[in-house]
Amino acid sequence: MSKGNKVPSSRRNYAYLAIGIFSLGYGAYRVISLYENYQKYEIQFAIAIGFVAAGVICIYRFFKSLK
Question: How many helices (H) and strands (E) does the chain have?
Answer without folding.
Answer: 2, 0
